[in-house]
């Protein structure tokens, strides 16, 4: 069956995680993604465990399936000319250069529009180019700092901390995909391409302040910023009697009443501090503390048996290793294994969304550096003699 983006060609000029993860999602949806890499490759090729010298580190494997790779020297005239040929047949271009850098390279939106008038052109980088931070570089940690994520951690940890996941890169990547799809839909109706800017800082500020704008939602303010429930000292997974952990959230009033009744603590349901969700929010630390004290009186299995048939939200606390064996993920085929030409047997997560008519799927394994250099240039109409000359000059690379 056809995938949603069958027939859409994407030229990807990105590295690290933000751009590669976004373009991988476009590839999962069926787009033909051509990853344009420097001669030495995406820096993430060398990051994480790897089995050999093929530059296929685990970080690269996680962000680069459903793509073809061409390795070009874009500082050379031949490399730039080859990229222009690729862009002639492209529907989308995604880059994560700073705006000033892509302009110097000669591939600003204005320049690319001259090559492909209806192209959807997406720049994803740290800060909107028109603001005072517009020339700053950015990585996930610096955006976590700038957007308030790190300081939120100080409210529970006592000092600013980065989340142990690249939340800014991956969240912004999803905004890239959303924006590109919307622009393609506009082009389908109007015939017009356009330029899109997806800055990490603005994306994460919007993401964080959705709930944390709180009292600053009003002018003049009627309270401080910060959703108090999320910053409560006792908001955490609860330790059970046998030393294991559970996430239990008797959030709505019916959840709370059920939890108190089954736990043998009906007096808490009648406690004036906890009568309603609004009152529990006002006394959130006391509410969470009381819940934790109750959870500590039984084993995890006892709680799973006691609350398992109720609607009280509850879940075991998985380890990272445990996710690979999680019964739900195993049953739904979430983890898939493949034989990679250089890496042998590898494990990947399948696209998480399910379509009834146009499936998203893993069609192409993460490519070796320059694996498709020759074929994509031939498809673009570049002469074999020219390709051979570029290979000899080192401005184009293919695997040995």
CATH architecture of the largest domain: 3-Layer(aba) Sandwich
Q: Kindly report the name of the CATH homologous superfamily of the largest domain.
A: Crotonobetainyl-coa:carnitine coa-transferase, domain 1
Instruction: Identify the overall geometry.
Output: elongated
| Percentage of residues in strands | 5-15%
Largest sheet: 7 strands, mixed
Enumerate how many helices there are, as a single number. 18
Derived from helix and strand composition plus strand pairing, the structural class reads alpha/beta
Q: Report helical residue fraction.
A: 40-55%
Number of domains: 2
What top-tier CATH class of the largest domain fits best?
Alpha Beta
Distance between the termini: 35 Å
Written as H for each helix and E for each strand, in order along the chain, the element string is EHEHEHEHHEHHHEHEEHHHHHEHHEEHHE
Low-pLDDT segments: none
By CATH, the topology of the largest domain is: Rossmann fold
Using only C-alpha atoms, the radius of gyration works out to 25 Å
């Amino acid at each position: 069956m056809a995938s949603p983006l069958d027939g859409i060609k994407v030229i990807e000029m990105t590295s690290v995680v933000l751009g590669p993860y976004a373009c991988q999602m476009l590839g999962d949806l069926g787009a033909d993604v051509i990853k344009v890499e420097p001669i030495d490759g995406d820096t993430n090729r060398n990051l994480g465990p790897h089995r050999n010298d093929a530059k296929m580190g685990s970080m690269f494997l996680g962000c680069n399936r459903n793509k073809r790779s061409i390795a070009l020297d874009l500082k050379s005239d031949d490399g730039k000319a080859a990229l222009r040929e690729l862009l002639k047949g492209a529907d989308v271009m995604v880059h994560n250069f700073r705006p000033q850098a892509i302009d110097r390279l000669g591939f600003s939106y204005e320049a690319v529009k001259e090559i492909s008038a209806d192209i959807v052109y997406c720049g994803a980088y740290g800060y909107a180019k028109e603001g005072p931070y517009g020339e700053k570089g950015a990585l996930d940690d610096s955006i976590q700092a700038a957007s308030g994520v790190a300081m939120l951690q100080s409210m529970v940890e006592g000092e600013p901390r980065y989340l142990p996941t690249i939340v800014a890169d991956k969240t912004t990547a999803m905004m890239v995909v959303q924006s590109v799809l919307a622009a393609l839909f506009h082009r389908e109706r109007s015939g017009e391409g356009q330029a899109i800017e997806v800055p990490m800082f603005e994306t994460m500020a919007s993401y964080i302040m959705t709930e944390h704008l709180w009292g600053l939602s009003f002018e003049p303010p009627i309270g401080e910023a910060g959703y108090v429930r999320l910053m409560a000292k006792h908001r955490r997974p609860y330790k059970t009697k046998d030393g294991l952990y559970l996430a239990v959230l008797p959030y709505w009033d019916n959840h709370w009443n059920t939890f108190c009744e089954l736990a043998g603590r009906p007096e808490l349901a009648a406690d004036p501090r906890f009568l309603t969700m609004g009152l529990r929010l006002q006394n959130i630390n006391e509410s969470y503390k009381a819940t934790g004290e109750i959870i500590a009186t039984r084993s995890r299995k006892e709680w799973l048996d006691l609350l398992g048939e109720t609607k009280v939200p509850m879940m075991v606390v998985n380890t990272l290793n445990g996710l690979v064996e999680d019964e739900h993920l195993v049953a739904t085929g979430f983890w898939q294994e493949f034989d990679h030409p250089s890496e042998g047997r590898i494990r990947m997560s399948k696209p998480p969304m399910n379509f009834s008519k146009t499936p998203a799927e893993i069609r192409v394994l993460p490519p070796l550096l320059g694996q498709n250099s020759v074929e994509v240039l031939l498809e673009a109409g570049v002469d074999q003699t020219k390709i051979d000359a570029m290979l000899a000059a080192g401005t184009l690379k293919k695997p040995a």
